[in-house]
Design goal:
Helix content of chain B: 25-40%
Distance between the termini of chain C: 30 Å
Number of helices of chain C: 2
Helix content of chain C: under 10%
Chains: A mainly alpha (about 220), B alpha/beta (about 250), C mainly beta (about 325)
Order of helices and strands of chain C: HEEEEEEEEEEEEEEEEEEH
Radius of gyration of chain B: 17 Å
Strand content of chain C: 35-45%
Number of strands of chain C: 18
Strand content of chain B: 15-25%
Largest interface: A-C, 50 and 49 residues
Low-confidence stretches of chain B: 1-8, 225-250
Radius of gyration of chain C: 19 Å
Largest sheet of chain C: 11 strands, mixed
Oligomer: heterotrimer
Distance between the termini of chain B: 27 Å
Shape of chain B: globular
Largest sheet of chain B: 7 strands, parallel
């Protein structure tokens, strides 16, 4: 029996009160631009996101977890700056730090751990996820999987508010993505102990472009 | 109540302002800021559904320095942001208190939603719930956690009552009955004597908060559901622990 | 994945003999194709006592031919300046083809200015016996030096298997403007497997590190999160020490292109487009937004009617799907 499954479900649950519900993972501007308009387009969007920015976030969550397990909190600052360099959109850097701060606020309240006080005021979300996973007794692969789950479940949940779409079609796409997420989590965990500068950097140009457009809007449903 | 706020004896009094769309929450906040800004240093957090329009409205009213009015984006879940998942609002309040210390009062405006949304005591110390006469005279009688359990119920726009055929006295009586004696104020910003009662209530609350005699009260979970049946209406509650289903996944 | 750290911390004193590529030199799955080409080129510049830039080492090999050049197009930063070194990279052979291994080392010495252009687009093709092709470019820009790098697009042809890896290391006080453009297949063909990575560091701090993976082995890249149905994707990175104290503002100047500050004294223009011409226009428009000296003083190419950026909602079609 795998250990820590209940803790992983706690961490990955969209109902964890860390403010994730206010974000669409870039789906709102993508739908608005006409780039996604049906279930097939949504599924391709989710796959592309998991394979690029989701995977990079997972790698950094795994790496942060690995360092937290070793009590090497000083090593997290290199992860922070390397993740900055892998997030070309300033809006997405800001969103990641906002979500990180919110997750940190929740975790330090519901499951206090000395590491949380050492993370600064607004660390990147994957870094907090990694440290939180370690605090809950989880490992790098768990941290990676939690982030990967959120990277697709967040925009999938937003889809029903943004598109004319059957919610069962949305979850069918998520069901088809489960093997992919497991595979990506394995791959991410394999990078966990690599030097920060060598971690993967798969980018998603349209996500950066969409995020910068979104932040210029006056009227929007989601914060990102 | 689990204390989610870091211990800070000197933090501001946090007052939530909830109520349905269009009842005048922003207007009530503007009135409070305008009337009380000589006595208290006030900050405002707005929760909008689509935009930061409420924050813009308040800034344009000029009732407070613009930087003391901040907006939280709620991803179309305004009720979640004040009750189930208050983290964004909590951080916004703490930032405001830190940036403009010492603040005396922070007013948190909920996104206009429906009759069921109330603030969690994890977020605020006291809340007022705003109805207006234009929403119909029977709204107060219907009850619900906001109407029944908020620290103060405000019935707004009473100057319009004669135009919408609402008996204000009856509405107040209904509300007082639903609230089992908790205070009700009928106000209009066109009748200064009514808004000064509202300001007095806030002054009194601040005194109680400052001397430690105020205890936050949770108005309770979501409203019981109404089911119209052939033999009339009856009400049943879904129990104390039940909150609105999974806003994070809507 | 890449041993970039040791290089980043190596001495900035350059020796042409120490430029051996990072490990591993070859990662082809199959045996090396007979006739596969290994080309190593080296280019260095230095400033003389009068602050004029001159080329030091100019070593061509095989497919990589370096030669002194004249201004080719409107240049940001160096437009019509005569005291800068200008070099053009030309292809001495078709390719790279599968199995080929190219590397280019560029060392812009302290205080010197180098403009590097390219004679033509680089077409990446499969080899006759399969195998992966590699191109590694290492750039070092010394203190007070300026590197203007305006290569032509790289075209990922059907069936290719190519790994493109560019590392740019800037000393504090260095200036950079570089363009990268990738065309996803030739006309009406899908691209082969193509992975391109660009890492830029400034004062040993990472500024930009992005990889793009397309082709049959990559998933989801045709989705709307990555490149969608576009046939071309590219960026311009500009770095100026003056931006240490505050970068220019973000601008979402086109529905498919943005100008945005990087985490450090750099700006990024990022764009996708149906084709190469529109990609170039969008990238140039982003650089123009920065004003002088980034915008060349010659008038920019006008965007033709129908491609202007008023419409946020757009559908882009390309033959390269």
């Amino acid at each position: 029996m795998a250990q820590g499954q209940a803790a992983l479900l706690l961490l990955a649950d969209g109902r964890l009160p860390a403010g994730g519900y206010a974000h669409s993972g870039g789906l709102e501007p993508t739908v608005q631009a006409g780039r996604v308009s049906d279930a097939a387009g949504l599924e391709q969007f989710l796959v592309g996101r998991a394979e690029t920015t989701g995977f990079v976030a997972a790698v950094f969550a795994a790496a942060a977890c690995e360092r937290a397990v070793r009590d090497d909190i000083a090593a997290l600052s290199a992860l922070e700056s390397e993740l900055d360099a892998r997030t070309p959109s300033p809006e997405l850097r800001s969103v990641s730090r906002t979500l990180g701060r919110q997750l940190l606020r929740v975790m330090s309240t519901i499951h206090p751990h000395p590491h949380f006080a050492l993370l600064g005021t607004a660390p990147h979300q994957p870094v907090v996820m990694g440290v939180a996973a370690a605090a809950l007794g989880l490992g790098p692969r768990d941290a990676a999987l939690a982030i990967l789950h959120e990277s697709v479940a967040g925009p999938a949940a937003a889809a029903a508010k943004l598109m004319r779409i059957d919610p069962f079609d949305v979850h069918a796409a998520l069901a088809r993505a489960t093997e992919r997420l497991d595979r990506l989590a394995d791959a991410a965990a394999n990078h966990a102990d690599a030097p920060a500068s060598e971690l993967p950097s798969r980018g998603a140009p349209l996500s950066d472009i969409a995020a910068e457009h979104h932040r210029s809007w006056n009227v929007r449903l989601f914060a990102s | 109540m689990a204390k989610t706020t870091p211990p800070n004896e000197h933090r501001a009094l946090r007052i939530g302002v909830a109520g349905p769309v269009g009842t005048g929450k922003s207007s009530v906040i503007a009135t409070l800021c305008r009337s009380l800004s000589d006595e208290f240093v006030i900050g405002v957090i707005t929760n909008d559904i689509y935009t930061d329009e409420d924050a813009r409205f308040l800034r344009s009213e000029g009732v407070l320095p613009a930087e003391r009015i901040r907006a939280v984006e709620t991803g179309a879940c305004p009720h979640t942001a004040i009750r189930d998942d208050v983290t964004m609002n909590l951080i916004a309040i703490e930032d405001l208190e830190r940036d403009f210390a010492p603040l005396d009062i922070v007013l948190v405006e909920s996104g206009g939603d429906n009759l069921t949304a109330t603030f969690s005591p994890a977020l605020i110390d006291a809340q007022l719930f705003v109805l207006d006469v234009a929403g119909g005279g029977d709204v107060a009688r219907k009850g619900g956690p906001g109407i029944g359990g908020a620290d103060l119920l405000v019935i707004n726009k009473v100057d319009l009552a004669e135009h919408v055929d609402v008996d204000v006295e009856q509405m107040v009586t209904d509300a007082e009955k639903a609230r089992e004696g908790r205070p009700v104020l009928a106000i209009s910003r066109k009748r200064p004597e009514t808004t000064s009662q509202l300001c007095d209530w806030v002054r009194q609350l601040h005194r109680a908060y400052a001397d430690g005699s105020h205890a936050p009260v949770d108005p309770g979970p979501m409203a019981p559901h109404f089911h119209a049946t052939d033999d009339g209406s009856h009400v049943h509650s879904h129990g104390g622990g039940h909150t609105h289903h999974q806003h994070g996944h809507e | 994945m890449y041993a970039s750290s040791p290089r980043e911390h190596s001495s900035h004193k350059y020796s042409p003999h120490e430029h051996s590529p990072r490990e591993p030199v070859r990662r082809d799955q199959g045996a090396r194709r007979p006739g596969a080409m290994s080309s190593r080129a080296v280019l260095t510049t230095e400033a003389d006592v009068l602050a004029r830039s001159r080329v030091g080492v100019l070593r061509s090999q095989g497919a990589l031919v370096l030669r002194p050049a004249h201004p080719k197009e409107s240049e940001p930063l160096t437009h019509r300046r005569r005291e800068v070194a200008r070099v053009m990279l030309a292809a001495g052979a078709a390719g790279p083809l599968g199995g080929d291994d190219y590397s280019l080392d560029v060392h812009v010495g302290a205080g010197s200015t180098l403009v590097l252009t390219e004679a033509s687009a680089m077409l990446v093709l499969p080899g006759p016996c399969g195998g992966r092709s590699h191109m590694r470019i290492n750039v070092y820009v010394g203190e007070g030096a300026t590197f203007v790098w305006l290569p032509e697009p790289i075209i990922a042809a059907r069936g290719c298997d190519h790994e493109h890896d560019v590392r740019v290391r800037l000393e504090r006080g260095a200036r950079l403007v570089m363009r990268e453009e990738t065309l996803l297949g030739r006309h009406r063909e899908p691209p082969g497997d193509f992975r391109t990575t660009l890492r830029v560091t400034h004062d040993d701090t990472p500024l930009y590190h992005q990889q793009l993976c397309v082709g049959p082995q990559a998933d989801g890249w045709r989705g709307a999160a990555v490149v969608g149905e576009n046939g071309a994707v590219g960026s311009i990175i500009a770095v100026d020490p003056a931006w240490e104290s505050g970068a220019p503002a973000t601008s979402a100047f086109h529905s498919s292109a943005i100008l945005a500050p990087l985490p450090g004294p750099g700006m990024l223009v990022s764009a996708v487009a149906p084709d190469s011409l529109q990609l170039r226009r969008r990238l140039s428009a982003g650089l123009d937004t920065l004003g002088a000296p980034w915008a060349p003083r010659d008038a920019p190419l006008p965007e033709p009617e129908g491609h202007r950026d008023e419409v946020v909602s757009e559908t882009e079609h390309t033959g390269a799907g």
